[in-house]
Structure formats: structure tokens, C-alpha cells
Amino acid sequence: MKMGGQVRAIEGAVLGWDIGAALQMAHALGYDTLAVADLLPEVEEVACRKINERSAEGKQGQVVGGVAEAGGEDDFGGFG
């Protein structure tokens, strides 16, 4: 949770964490930075994949550009 604001992202996807910020945070919290540097890339990979999967699940059925993805109707019940 502490890394929530320290991400590298593009519209619609998290690409990774800011590893420099993560290591500084680990140091500030008193963690062994060598251990964090060793473990973080694997944790980052899984976390980013899960974040992106959840984001994709949340986008299904949402309105995009005023037209519902599934039905093709706009907000007023007509077609775009």
C-alpha cells in the first residue's frame, strides 16, 4: 500500500514502480535495502499484473465516449 503513489503508468495501465523511491522508502523505514532490492522486482511484477487485471475487470461495461460498450446506446437511450 505504501507504494500506491510511486508508480510508472500510462493511461489505463500500471507499468511498474519507481524503484528509487521504493529503496529510499525502505531505508527510511529501517528495512534492509539489499534485501528489498533483491525482492522488489518480483513483487512489483505480480502487483502490477494484478492491478492491471482488476482495472480491466472494472472497465467492462462502462460507458466510453458517451456510448455504452455493450449496448451501443448513449446516456439518453438513443444511439450515438
Average pLDDT number: 76
Write down the overall geometry. elongated
Number of helices: 2
The amount of beta strand, in percent, is 15-25%
Question: End-to-end span in angstroms?
Answer: 40 Å
Helix and strand string, N-terminal first? EEHHEE
Which stretches are low in confidence, meaning pLDDT under 50 for 5 or more residues running? 66-80
What is Rg?
19 Å
Q: How many β-strand runs?
A: 4
Q: Give the % helix.
A: 40-55%
Provide the structure class: alpha+beta
Strand order of the largest sheet: 1-2
Q: Main sheet? A: 2 strands, antiparallel
Walk me through the structure.
46% of the residues lie in helices and 16% in strands. The chain has 2 helices and 4 strands, in the order E-E-H-H-E-E. The protein has helices at residues 19-28, 33-59; strands at residues 7-10, 13-17, 63-64, 67-68. Residues 66-80 have low confidence and may be disordered.
Concise structural overview:
The protein has 80 residues and is of the alpha+beta class. The protein is 46% helix and 16% strand. It has helices spanning 19-28, 33-59, and strands at 7-10, 13-17, 63-64, 67-68.
Task: Describe the structure using short key phrases.
single chain; 80 residues; alpha+beta; two-stranded antiparallel ribbon; disordered C terminus
Helix-strand layout with pairing:
Blueprint: E1 7-10, E2 13-17, H1 19-28, H2 33-59, E3 63-64, E4 67-68
Antiparallel strand pairs: 1-2, 3-4
Helix pairs in contact: 1-2
